[in-house]
Hints:
Shape: elongated
Oligomer: single chain
Mean pLDDT: 91
Helix content: 40-55%
Largest sheet: 5 strands, antiparallel
Distance between the termini: 61 Å
Amino acid sequence: MPAQSPSIFTEPFQIFLGEKMRTAEMEVDRLSEDDLQSPALGQSLQNIANFKFQVAEIRPDEKTGKRRTEVRSFVDYGRHIQSKVDVLDISIPYSGFPKSFSIAPTNGHTIESKATYQSSSGHLLVVTLDEDDALEVKLATFISEVEDNLQKLGQDMENLRKRLLVHVQDRAQERLNAIKARQEKNKGYSFPVE
Length: 194
């Protein structure tokens, strides 16, 4: 089986947001003084604030299952016991960026079911559920919570794009103010300063 991620929706959105903010700020800091004073600055900042992120969409109607047996260990009154449990690995195809399943949206669900996602051998979200009478209910809950998380992540990404633009505009303005202050200071010298 190909390498899989350990779990889903575990990285707080705030971490992703912070990384995007720092990256955008570094890009603004790399702009030359000429770029900052150019009439095309607005477009440059727009380009910095834009990032591509296609939130994943699952296709639950195309799900498939594979039965297997897991050996589970537990302690009962100090005795180590192993038991065999029949489980189903249910594969749900998806499209979009696999990273969607690692970022926890704000106000999202904590997914209780054991789930992983694959991207190397086909985009599959795989949930492992005990094969018992509650399987269909657990699966429906899992699908509903994942779809809700992905929708909320999409909203978070839209909000991030707006925040990012304001952030890069503020950072560019800080740099412009520093450039203007330095130019004013240079005017007070009796010699030219480059």
